[in-house]
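Predict the holo structure. Ligand: 1,3-dihydroxyacetonephosphate.
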Amino acid sequence: MESHSISKKIGIKKCLRKLDKNKNNNGERMNLNSLSEIANAMVEKGRGILAADESTPTCKKRFDSINVESNEANRNAYRDMLFTTPGMEKFISGVILFDETLRQSTLANNEKFPDYLTKLGVIPGIKVDKGAHPLPGCEGEKVTEGLDGLNSRLEEYYDLGARFAKWRAVITIGDSAPSGSCLAANAHGLARYAAMCQENGIVPIVEPEILMDGEHTIEESFIVTEEVLHTTFYELYSQNVLLEGMVLKPNMVLSGYACSEQASVDEVAEMTVTVLKRCVPSAVPGIAFLSGGQSDEDATAHLNKMNQILGDNSPWNLTYSYGRALQAPSLKAWEGKQENVKDAQDAFYKRAKLNSLATKGEYSPEME
Ligand code: 13P
């Protein structure tokens, strides 16, 4: 017991201490010398995170929908279009990159994406998990892999400019799912990853995602979300993860896609806020939601309503870390064509701006 509390104290000192690893040139707008400074900057009011870390197979799926070949050059061009959107840094605090993207460069100046983003005041992040794989003994359930070799990958990612990372665990709701073993295995993986990130001066985004697939009601989603978050925070505590130096990326509490009764915006916001208050310690600086397949408008409206409910007394900043809900209109407008870049950037800018307003509870559907 005693050694545990001593290591916790050491953890806090480490968070507040200047990171001596900070040898890369941070942009002038950023003064990110400790885990808590980075975490706070990621969830700063009015800004949120762009999840652009689609793995190569996921990127292929997205490109298939617009009939664009998923090759390295096209993936580079697409990410370039997003990241060079004029003014996007007003609404985007950080970008989650995929390994390939972290090593790619802007088309105009051949500047490495992490360096370009850092200069802009946008924090580069990196997806480090190796995807969700079948969990033996638990039919239909998955566990996220990627802990082997993670430490050395994090060292390299830090040197390449990444200051935060992402690891996504996937939980399904079904007849006998989620099982206790699935929750325990995924929470353990998330906590091991988070502790390793912090050892390397990198802020972990902890992402336990309950999928919207299925017929489950919003009440069932609430119950499972509560259990998943409790299990996750218990593991984070057990593994000495410093809560001040992490960001939680949860699902919202939603009805399953195939549920005959779809909850209203108010219900989603009320139930999500309630479950977060029950489970997330106020030491966590911010919560950045995933969009999980919601429509762009729903993802913005839900975030807006939650911020209206919590107002100025919220224990954490509530923001976005959306993939599809930030990119979908832009991807559609782009179609892989240079002449569409301006329209695609306008579409991305608009979604980012509306979500920024939602972090302050200032969005309304008429703005769409
Ligand atoms: P979506 O917002 O499309 O769910 O993606 C967020 C993400 O990073 C999933 O891991």
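The first strand starts at residue 48 and ends at 51. The pocket of 1,3-dihydroxyacetonephosphate is lined by residues 51, 168, 207, 290-292, 322-325 (CB under 6 Å).
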